[in-house]
Amino acid sequence: DASGMSLLDVSKRQWSDEMLSGCEISRDWLPEATESPVASSRINTEAAKITGLLEGTPIIAGGGDQAAGAIGCGIVKDGVVSATLGTSGVVFAHSDKYLVEPEGRLHTFCHAVPGKWHLMGVMLSAAGSFQWFRNTLGSEEMTLEEETGVDAYDILTEKASEVAAGSEGLLFLPYLTGERTPYPDPDAKGAFVGLTLRHSKAHMTRAVLEGVTYGLRDGF
Questions:
Q1: Which one of the listed residues 65, 78, 154, 185 is annotated catalytic?
Q2: Is cis: bond before 182, omega within 30 of 0?
């Protein structure tokens, strides 16, 4: 997880003297950087009394959410890629070597697998875009959810499934909170493009889903 701090020399898997010097940060302020499975400490007597854990219980360094989740998905060798959807959306690939995308559109971090790295394409508003759409324009569907017990998202997607791929030319740009991959721009904005009288809420729903899908494709 230290890879995301801008203070780590990711290629060498250790704190960067150059960055620490430039930021006037003492190395003494930072913990030892260890590989994820390493027991970086153990429960002492005082902590054991407070927590009820056994004295000497190992405290594992752990990893970032994406790296840890990728191990659970088997993304531990070259050529295997995962896509994860939450508020953000992540395309995640293992790498045996330290690789850098020259335009900075991908993150290269130390993997939770010792001695390995991973590359991430991250879009900031993936499922978050759909949540925004439901919260903003889905009041009718949320009322139906309360009345029928059918999830508002399912009601929206059921209607969207009746719309042909391409949403009859309606596009959605999912940059609701800026973007990271492939456009590292905090000022990027979301938009519906190509809206006409023939477009319904179902078209807009499908456009949101397609926009997010293509955002993930950009990362891939």
A1: 65
A2: yes
